[in-house]
Amino acid sequence: MKKSPYDTVLVLDFGAQYSQLIARRVREAGVYSTIVPYTTSAEEIRKLSPVGIIFSGGPCSVGDAASPRPDMAIFSLGIPILGICYGLQVLSTCLGGHVDCPEKKEYGFANLDIVDRTSALLKGVPDNSQIWMSHGDSVDSLPEGFRRTASTPNCPYTVVENDEKKIYGVQFHPEVVHSKDGFTMIKNFVLDICRASAGWNMGSFIEDEIKRIREKVGDRQVLCGLSGGVDSSVAAVLIHKAIGDQLVCVFVNNGLLRKNEAQNVLDLFGRHFKMRLQYADAEEAFLTALKGVSEPESKRKIIGKLFVDTFYNEARKCGDISFLAQGTLYPDVIESRSPSGGPSATIKSHHNVGGLPEDLKWELLEPLKDLFKDEVRALGRELGLSDELIDRQPFPGPGLGVRCIGEITKERLDTLREVDAIFIEEIRKAGLYGEIWQALADLLPVKSVGVQGDGRTYREVCTLRAVTSEDAMTADWYRLPYDVMQKCASRICNEVSGVNRVLYDITSKPPATIEWE
Ligand code: XMP
Fold it and tell me: For residues 452 and 334, which has the higher predicted lDDT (pLDDT)?
């Protein structure tokens, strides 16, 4: 890992579910933050010269012999440290304090009783401030040189500090929104105690990243696969700003896109941003390959393989390419990190580009790999991308291929495109688009009888699905207001000739998935 040009606060990760959130909060305070494994040595940390270190929480108990411990030399670096939950317990143990497993465990809300108002960490925090606790163990005897500055009825040492050594600890989670003044405490730590300069914002990131891209790329050429999604769009616009026509974008129309989507991508990137755009209209090839196929896994395989073939065929037409740009984000990097530490970014799998063919010896260019999704959105706005694109709901790589259930034909896809467009339009009109993780329509391989005007019809059935979710791993069905449902059903049956019946999917994930396939 390289030293960052910004004042940096390191999050030493003890396996907490909230490590990413801690780093995000620090960045929201305008200070760059990055996560490193707890095994990182003091020597490595010294080389990174952070202005502060935060020990994250973690699932272990310091009472276990095998519980994770930091390199003891970290405490002698003279860098301010804040321990959160397990982070507090481990630093207390390391420095000679004691941690107990009390009978009374605290989960959920508690109120902070501030016992020493001189605390730099608690500046501006009112008494009784609500905090979020989630712990079994707690410190029952402090290391030498420490004092307590706040407590709760069940936890005497809720906030402790050693001002001289600038080592602090909190038993609760200041990074979660349920801790009402948690962000104030994080700001106190990074801005006042660590004296970090708040130089991290999207404007400075763009300037630095442009310099970095120019230095790395020189006069060589970069290829970027555009999907129309947020990450690849932002990456392409940023790289284009840095190297102009040395960037060439490939956009594959697989015939499984939403209504007007191909045209929108061509207009935005070709006409508006004036990028070199290699457009592959592969609709026919995809439809031919998918002819007669109904089984979901076979469809996916066909779409995935043909996409890769088409993408690389286009790429080969683009001349001498040295780099492949990817919209890899920081969470992808953290998640793909090997257990022994050291980030190892792999090709972003859901771009469906797969591994590089042997004859293409490209380096990866990943200008977003230090950013969280929120920051990518802020960056996109700063680069002039519209809110509509930036706030777009996820759309799967195989597109309508996983939503046209049964055999995929041009006619059925066109029907589905119309249904989908009406559904999304009505959700936007109702002002609900931003509340919903994903809204999607599927066309079922089922016909039913209906009556329209004077005649009976025998047409296809479509389903509408809207879900809320944090990360797509689990999802709940969205309680779409009846009047919006009614408007959608009535418009779809009136305006889309192939459909006479509309269903709303009220299954959560699990047991269902978000896509029907
Ligand atoms: P499921 O259907 O498994 O989907 O609940 C979870 C999330 O993943 C998206 N999805 C995909 N995204 N390529 C993608 O880029 C794919 O092949 C793919 N399959 C599912 C889905 O839309 C949802 O957001």
Answer: 452
Number of compact structural domains in the chain? 3
Q: Which residue's CA is the closest to the ligand 1 atom numbered 6? A: 472
Environment class of residue 119 by beta-carbon count within 10 Å: exposed (0-12), middle (13-18) or buried (19+)?
buried
The enclosing domain of 215 has a CATH number of: 3.40.50.620
- Whether the pLDDT of residue 505 is over 60: the answer is yes
384 and 434 in a single domain? The answer is no
d(CA 67, CA 14): 9
Provide the Cα torsion 438, 439, 440, 441; round to 10°: 170
End-to-end CA distance of the chain: 41
- Give the CA count within 13 Å in the CB-facing half-sphere of 217: 28
Question: What is the 144 CA–ligand 1 centroid distance (Å)?
Answer: 53
* Local confidence band at 347 (pLDDT 50, 70, 90 cut-offs): very low
What is the tens place of the pLDDT at every residue in 276-307? 999 999 999 999 999 999 999 999 999 999 99
Q: Is residue 128 part of a domain?
A: yes
Nearest CA, atom 14, ligand 1: 396
Q: Distances from the Cα of 157 to the Cαs of 91, 140, 328, 403, in angstroms?
A: 13, 7, 41, 54
Q: Which atom of ligand 1 is nearest to the CA of 304?
A: 17
Ligand 1: atom nearest CA of 351 is 15
User: Tokens at residue 179, please?
Assistant: 């801790």
Tokens (6 digits) for 30: 């305008």
CA-proximal residue: ligand 1, atom 22 (nearest): 396
**Domain assignment present for 265:** yes
- The values of phi and psi at residue 338, to 5°, are -70, 155
The ligand 1 atom nearest the CA atom of 350: 15
Rounded distance, CA 189 to CA 183, Å?
10
pLDDT digits (tens, 9 = 90+) for 82-117: 999 999 999 999 999 999 876 666 678 999 999 999
* Residue 344 domain flag: yes
Ligand 1: centre distance to CA 92 (Å)? 44
Angle at 167 between CA 161 and CA 112, to 5 degrees: 35
Q: Which two tokens stand for residue 391?
A: 């706030």
Residues 189 and 226 in one domain: no
Write out pLDDT tens, residues 208-258: 999 999 999 999 999 999 998 999 999 999 999 999 999 999 999 999 999
Rounded to an integer, the average pLDDT of 29-39 is 95
∠ CA 381-384-387, rounded to 5°: 50
Contacts of 263 (CB under 8 A, 6+ apart): none
